[in-house]
Amino acid sequence: MNRILVLFFSGILLFSLKGTAQDKLYFGQTEIGALVGRSEEQWDGNYKRRVDVSLMSFHGVRVSKNQVVGFSVGFDQYNDISIIPIALGWRGFLGKDGKPNFFGGLDLGGGTAVLEKKVSDEWSKSWYKGGFLVSPSVGISFPSLKSKTAFSFSLAYKRQEITHFRGSLSSPGIQTIASDKLPPGYSSMTENSFLFRSLVLRLGIMY
Questions:
Q1: pTM of the prediction?
Q2: Alpha helices in 57-142 (DSSP H)
Q3: First to last CA, the chain
Q4: 11-38 burial string, b = 16+ CB within 10 Å, else e?
Q5: N or C, which terminus of the chain has less Cβ within 10 Å?
Q6: Looking at the domain assignment, is residue 66 inside a domain?
Q7: How far is residue 82 from each of residues 55, 85, 106, 115, measured CA to CA in Å?
């Protein structure tokens, strides 16, 4: 899947780069916002609303006057789980130079839970692992009066997969049957998958 995405965006870039050689190729966008969604279902069947922080920095290349492809990296907080999202992305603009522009975007990639510490003791180990993410977005940008930057307001939907693993360690001196599904040194492993769907409200700057 990742190879297909890389080839797709690379093809767009190579096909369109010639036509934009005289324009400013680099495009950057940095945003801060809030992830609004629901937490996991509680014991009584109800859900709690969550509002978490989201940071994103997008870096791309203009493949035409109104289109940009690139990649983004950021920071998302889901309850007490910290995720670094890394994705390939596209941005498209509608409007005239020097005027407010509408724009749309799409980010496809994955999240890493490298900031989450692995918890371990003499009996077990547990850790988080990030998964696939997809995030379409729409917004509007307002050019500043004295520079080539623009302020942006955007609304996005983000779907992020996260998995929690907990493994029981094998007791010393006890042999375990080798298994492709069980890492060496573990007698059992439990896996809980979480799916966070969020409405993302962002404020940022384009440059």
A1: 0.79
A2: none
A3: 30
A4: ebeeebeeeeeeeeeebebbbebbbebe
A5: N
A6: yes
A7: 12, 10, 22, 6
